[in-house]
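re: ur question from earlier - yeah i can do the single chain one, its not a big deal. heres the input i used so u can compare w yours
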Amino acid sequence: MSESFDPLSAVPNNSLLGMSFTPDSATDEPQAEASEVPIPEDIPQIIRVTWELDSQIPPFENRLEGMVFTLHRLAQLPEITQANLESEELDALRQIIDENPDALVALPFTLPDDGDDFLQQLPRLVWSENIEGVAVVYETDAMLTAAEMQAAPHEAEERQHYLETIKQDREKSRFVVAATREESWSVVHPKFESDPEHIEQGPALVLDLLQLITNGRDDNTDDAGDTSAAGGDDT
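and the output i got, formated as tokens:
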């Protein structure tokens, strides 16, 4: 085996693994301003995996587009990837896992191409026992503020015209939402095109998306209309 082998390179589906968001030990720790949140020494895994997804997924080309991911503990990877790894590579992967077996990693999950809108498919995700959670990265130029929705006319035709008018020339926003069975985290770029560095974040900042991806969290049924999130993308 080559000395330069990366044991995570054989994980299928270009999964997001091993990305680090901890401060560089060679630099001084950031001095938090009054308006900033200090970076904890131990960043919770749900926050870390949300940041990793936001950092590693490039901007989408379309105005309305998204990706879904299943979340797994690092210790689960040998079972998921053993068919794609040589024995030496699997041993190298286990050494990495030993350092942080409870770290959360994200594997891309492909929704069925049945013509449904991306957001309409999210509530159909059924959480299998093989996953720790679900995450979504979504970009749209059609998101409205609560004040804008409240100001919308009630009459259907007037309401549609109002919504189309205020959406004209609106730039994209990016939403990254991740949830396990116990916790959640959201990162939002309100002005993703003109000010991509500005973010807002919190445990339930994008409640609509959070509800969509957790709709099947406690549903173990095998409905024909459901999409079982069993871990990774097998296409």
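The chain has one domain: 43-218. not sure if urs matches, ping me
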